[in-house]
User: Fold this.
Amino acid sequence: MTDKKDHDPHAVTKVTPPGRVVALTGADGFLGRNLIGLLEDDDRVSRIVALDVERPATAGRKTRFYKVDLTQPRVDARLAEIFASEQVDTLLHMAFLSSPTHASAWAHELESVGTLHVLNACRERPVRKFVLWSHTILYGASPRNPNFLPETHPLRGHSESRFLRDKIEAEQVVASFARTSPGTLVTVLRLAPILGPTVKNYLTRYLGRTMVPTVMGFDPLMQFLHEVDALAAFKLAVMRDVPGVFNIVGDGVLPLSTVIQLTGRIGLPIPHPVMYPIARALWTAQLSEAPPTFVDYARWLCVADGDKALNELKFHPAFTTREAVLDYTHSQRMRDARLLRTTP
Amino acid sequence: MARKVLGNDPFGGDNPKPAAPAAKKAAPAKKAAPAPAKKAAPAKKAAPDTAKKPASVEKGAAPAKKPEGVWPAPEAAPVAEAAPVAEAAPVAEAAPVAEAAPPSIASVIAQLDALLDQAKDPAESRPLLDRLASRLRSLVQPEPEPERALAVDAPAAPAVHDEPFDAARELLGSDYYLRRWGQTAIRDRSEEVDDFGLDPDYARRWQPVWDLLYDRWWRVEIEGIENVPATGRVALVANHSGAIPFDGIMLATALRKEHPNARTLRWLAEDFVFHFPFAGAYLNRLGAVRACQENAERLLRKDACLALFPEGVKGIAKPYRERYQLQRFGRGGHIKLAIRTGTPIVPVTIVGAEETHPMLFQSGRLSKMLGLPFVPITPTFPLLGPLGLAGLPARWKIVFGAPIAMDAYRPEQSEDHVLVNRLNEKLRESIQSTLDQLLRARHSVFKG
Assistant:
C-alpha cells in the first residue's frame, strides 16, 4: 500500500490510457517469472500483481508482490481483498506444478483446492478475465486417441495419477465457474509439454538422461511447445479477449525415437510388462522424474490439435516441435559440458 | 544434416582432455584442467630464455634445461638426497609441486625465471638455488625438492608415453559405442515425419519387399487405375480380406507403381494394432493411420488419397468358407465422411487376398490371452513363423471402379441416416457384384 504512492504517478505519466492490471498466481514459476518480465516491457499493462510465496526475481517497477500461499485456508478472502485494492482486470492462474511431486497431498491442496480458493475470490470480487494454465497431457495417452485431439475431447488422463487428477479437477471447477459467471471471460490454455533452453521440468530431466528409457515396440508421435511460444500464448491471452479452451502446441510431430536421437541420447527400450514395475520402483525410490503412469505417454499418442488457437486466438507458434527439441538440445549439451549454469 | 552436427560426433562433445596422464596420476587435488595451462605458460616463457642465452646453457648453468646431465654433478650438494628420485622420474614428479600451491605459483615461477637469468655460473647459482629451495619448502607442505621443482620448466611431453593404454581406455570409457548403437537402431529413419507419422525413408526402405510380393509372389493385376483421380482428395473403399491383411500395403504399392501420379496412399488400420508393440509403430511409419472419423476427416481435408476398409475386423476375422462375402459396412461412417468433405468414393475390389491367408480356425483362448480380437491359424502362419506371413502365392486382382461423386449432397446431409444407409448399401452391393463377377471369371486361384 505504501509504495502505491510511488508507483501511480509513474504509471500515469507513462501510460496515457489507463492500462490493464494483470495479476499472476504462481508468479515465481517458470511461466510467471518470464511473463512478468515480458509484461514489464508492455505499455498496455499498467501494473502487475505477483502472487506467490517467493518474490520473482524479474519483478520490476510495475510489479507489486504479495506473499500468498494458496494452501492456506483463508486465502480466498485475502485474494479478494488484493483484487479489490489493486483493481485487478486480468488474472492468470498459474500456480501449478510443472513436474510430478512425491508430496501429493500438498500438491492437491495447491492445485485442486487452491484453484477453488482463487475462483471463490473471483466470485467475491469479479475480475474481467481469467486465464488458466492447463496441459494437453490431461487428455491422456491412449491407443484410441485420434492423431490430433480437439479441445472437445474429454480429459481422460490416468485416474491413478494425482498429478493429472489435480489438474483435471482444476479444469473442471474452472469450466463450471465459466458457466456460472458470465461476467468473466475464461480462457483455458492447454499447453503441450514445454521444451526450451531455460525451462526445467520432468521432460527436460527425462531427455537429459544419458540413457533414456523407452517402451520396446512403441514409438509414439510426440508434440512439444517451445518455451517462447508458451509465453507468447499467455501474452496473447492477456491482450486479446478470446474466451474458450485452446490447445497451444508446436507445429509438427516427431516420433519419440527421433526426439531421443536429436537430443544425442540413447534410447533404452524396455518391454512394457516390466516397464511399469521398474518405473514404480524408481519413482518410489525417488530416482525417476515421473510416476509410472507417465509410461503411457511413451507408448501411445497424446497429440493435440492447435487449429482452434490458430484461428481464434491467432496464435502462430514460432518454433516447430523439431526446433523446440533442437533448441533444448543446444543448451542441454552446454549444460552437459558444464558451460552453462543448470539453473537459468 | 543435424545428425552430423548433433550428438553423434564421438569426440566432439568431450571435454578437452588435459593431455597429461602424468598430471592426472600425480595430481593430489582435482586441478587437472588448470594445471596444464599453467605449466604451459612457464614452459613457453622458458623457451625464449634458452634462445637468448645459448652460451649459459653450454656453460652448464641451466639446470632446468638439462636435468639428467646437471643434477648428479658433484657441485649440486643440496640436491644429493633428492637425486635418485629425480633421476627416476624428474618430469612426472614435478607436477605436484606445480599444483600443490596454485595461488602463488605464478609468482614463484617469475622469481625462478629471474634467478635463472642471474645464474650465469654454477658456483654463483648455488646460493640462489638454496634460497629457492627454502622458499618452495615454505610454500609447499609435503616436502618438495627444489631441484625437482625446477623441472617444471622442462616440457612435459615425454610423460605421455607412460600410459600406452590411455587411448583405448578413453575409447571404451566414452559413450561412443553406445551412441553408435543408438544410431544403428534408427539408421534407416527420416529426420522428420508427416503429421500422421509416415516416415518416407523408412517406407522407401521397405519398398523392395512389397515390390517382390507384388510382382513375384502375388503377381497383382490392376484394372481401372485411371479411376483414381490424379490429384485431390479421394476415398478408396475396399473389401477387407485375408486373415493377415496385406491389402492396405498392396493397394499402396499398386498406386505407387501403376498410378501415373504415383499417389501416396494412406490407409486406416484397426484400433487393435496400436495396442500392441511393434505393429502400431511399424504400420504407422509405413503410412497406416488409426481408423477414426477425426483422422480420416483431417486427412481428406488435406487432399489425401485414403483407403478405407469399412468391414473392419469383421472382414478379416471371417472363416475361409465365408470368403468374399462382404460383411456389414460399419455404420456408414465412410459415407458420412465423404458427404461432409465432398470426397469422391472409388469402390475397390480385391480378389486373391482371401486365399493368401485362408483362416482355418481361430484360437479363442490365445486371442483372449493376447488381447487380440482374433488369432488366425492359417496353413502357413504360425507354422512357418515370420515367413508364413507371406502366405500362399494366390494370384491377386485389384479392380478400381468408377468414382462416385459426392458433390451432389450438402454437408448437412451427412446426418441424414436414411440417405447414408442407402448409399452405403449401394456401395456394398456394387463391390459385392464386382467380386462375384471376378470370381466367376477366375479359372484358378494360383494361376488367375
The mean pLDDT of chain B is 72. The CA atoms of residues 81 and 145 of chain B lie 9 Å apart.
